């Protein structure tokens, strides 16, 4: 049906329609612009796992982050590279500082890792540089561009590079330094170096006690840490007894200050006693010549087992002992030699102690079914021994995924009992993350950088 209006009324309605259309265009234009920008960003980069996270990454400070309180004093970022013996990891931290001398609040961690470790590229340092460039993309996507020039970029290598000849380690560090110098982030003096084992243990202790709220003022109860890497292992705790301090070698006691508190820690890093290095020691393969043709045998492996594994860029051929005795007891005798006379026993560990254990302690406990992969859990030292016995005596049931599981669990048992001297009843809290943050020295190192604590 057609409605007819007088000419003046028709003209008025036409003018009104044009006015409404202009107003709609005015209000819809910003929405269309955002949609076009979103579409453009989607076509040039891969989608993220979360639509909300992807949206905030694309628009940076255009939208406020709901996880950050409106009254926060200062938000700052830190980028820490952890170059371990079996992989390289990047940690991008977001902190909130409310009080100048107080504890910062960790708002977020972005984590990514790549394997193998940089030591595998000892003869090809340019590939190590490529690995670092790849990981830097995570930092560029996480830190807002306006913050790049004041966000510190720090690289610390651990046992993987400590075990390399000095010239090869230096070449890798120079390659990393070149990549850092090309980056848009702030590169502090001495930002690329090999970290000593003492600092590694102390900073891992800082991480765990920071995340569990034990570094607050007037907090006396802290937890110790046990870190088992590929090339080295660390133990760090706050002694309760003066006898522990007096009986320890002088270089096992470190004093440092953080957050206006002073700490005196028992800490030591055993280079060559990481899980992969221990395998080589038990096999007699450390510093051996003619590796291309040499076959190393162990009673910890199935008689029919012949395989190859790599560590530090070197491949080793291994096999079960065809003629000898095999099983848990024989394997134990091989592995206990790796710790006896090397690992020292702090006095008070035989008493009630509270320790968090992570890295390969956690990974192999998951493989053995002792803990849930996502949640972690509490495990007694005797649980490692019992499971090692089961795996070694019935390998067909347990070693489908890891042919070295018998050897690795037996080594952990030797390390905890015969090495550090823990009671079989001691309970260890096995964890990979605390409050959804990786339990490693990296967070402690980032906090240490900002707080300028002194470790000596």
TrEMBL record:
The lineage of its organism: Eukaryota, Metazoa, Chordata, Craniata, Vertebrata. PROSITE patterns: GDA1_CD39_NTPASE. Hydrolyzes nucleoside diphosphates with a preference for GDP, IDP and UDP compared to ADP and CDP. In the lumen of the endoplasmic reticulum, hydrolyzes UDP that acts as an end-product feedback inhibitor of the UDP-Glc:glycoprotein glucosyltransferases. UMP can be transported back by an UDP-sugar antiporter to the cytosol where it is consumed to regenerate UDP-glucose. Therefore, it positively regulates protein reglucosylation by clearing UDP from the ER lumen and by promoting the regeneration of UDP-glucose. Coiled coil: none annotated. GO terms for molecular function: ATP binding; nucleoside diphosphate phosphatase activity. It is found in: Endoplasmic reticulum; Secreted. It comes from Danio rerio (Zebrafish). InterPro entries: GDA1_CD39_NTPase. It holds the Pfam family GDA1_CD39. Pathway: Protein modification; protein glycosylation. Keywords: ATP-binding, Calcium, Disulfide bond, Endoplasmic reticulum, Glycoprotein, Hydrolase, Magnesium, Nucleotide-binding, Secreted, Signal. Belongs to the GDA1/CD39 NTPase family. Its cofactor is Mg(2+); Ca(2+). Its main location: endoplasmic reticulum. The gene is entpd5b. This is nucleoside diphosphate phosphatase. ATP binds at residues 230-234. It is an enzyme of class 3 (hydrolase). It catalyses: a ribonucleoside 5'-diphosphate + H2O = a ribonucleoside 5'-phosphate + phosphate + H(+); UDP + H2O = UMP + phosphate + H(+); IDP + H2O = IMP + phosphate + H(+); CDP + H2O = CMP + phosphate + H(+).
């Amino acid at each position: 049906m057609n409605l007819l209006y007088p000419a003046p009324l028709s003209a008025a309605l036409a003018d009104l329609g044009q006015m409404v259309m202009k107003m709609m265009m005015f209000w819809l234009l910003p929405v269309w612009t955002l949609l076009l920008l979103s579409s453009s960003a989607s076509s040039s980069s891969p989608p993220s796992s979360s639509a909300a996270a992807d949206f905030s990454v694309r628009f940076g400070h255009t939208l406020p982050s709901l996880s950050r309180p409106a009254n926060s004093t200062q938000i700052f970022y830190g980028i820490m590279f952890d170059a371990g013996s079996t992989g390289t990891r990047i940690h991008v931290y977001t902190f909130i500082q409310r009080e100048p001398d107080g504890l910062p609040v960790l708002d977020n961690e972005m984590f990514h890792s790549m394997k193998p470790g940089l030591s595998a590229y000892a003869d090809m340092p340019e590939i190590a540089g490529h690995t670092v460039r790849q990981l830097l993309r995570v930092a560029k996507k996480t830190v807002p561009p306006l913050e790049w020039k004041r966000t510190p970029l720090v690289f610390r290598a651990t046992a993987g590079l400590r075990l390399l000849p000095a010239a090869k380690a230096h070449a890798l560090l120079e390659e990393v330094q070149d990549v850092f110098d090309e980056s848009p982030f702030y590169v502090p003096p001495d930002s690329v170096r090999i970290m000593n084992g003492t600092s590694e243990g102390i900073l891992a202790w800082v991480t765990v006690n920071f995340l569990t709220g034990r570094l607050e003022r007037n907090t006396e109860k802290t937890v110790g840490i046990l870190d088992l890497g590929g090339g080295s292992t660390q133990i760090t705790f706050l002694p309760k007894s003066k006898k522990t301090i007096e009986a320890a070698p002088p270089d096992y006691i470190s004093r440092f200050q953080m957050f206006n508190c002073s700490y005196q820690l028992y800490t030591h890093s055993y280079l060559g006693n990481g899980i992969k290095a221990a395998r080589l020691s038990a096999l007699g393969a450390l510093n051996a010549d003619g590796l291309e043709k040499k076959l190393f045998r162990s009673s910890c492996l199935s008689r029919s087992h012949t395989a190859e594994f790599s560590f530090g860029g070197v491949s080793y051929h291994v096999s079960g002992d065809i003629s000898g005795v095999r099983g848990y007891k024989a394997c134990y005798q091989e592995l206990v030699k790796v710790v006896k006379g090397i690992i020292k026993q702090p006095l008070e560990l035989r008493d009630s102690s509270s320790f968090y254990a992570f890295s390969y302690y956690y990974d192999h406990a998951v493989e053995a079914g002792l803990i849930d992969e996502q949640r972690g859990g509490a495990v007694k030292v005797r649980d490692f021994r019992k499971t090692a016995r089961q795996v070694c005596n019935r390998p067909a049931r347990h070693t489908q995924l890891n042919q070295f599981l018998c050897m690795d669990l037996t080594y952990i048992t030797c390390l905890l009992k015969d090495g550090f001297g823990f009671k079989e009843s001691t309970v260890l809290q096995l964890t990979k993350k605390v409050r959804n943050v990786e339990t490693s020295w990296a967070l402690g190192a980032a906090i240490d950088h900002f707080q300028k604590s002194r470790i000596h």
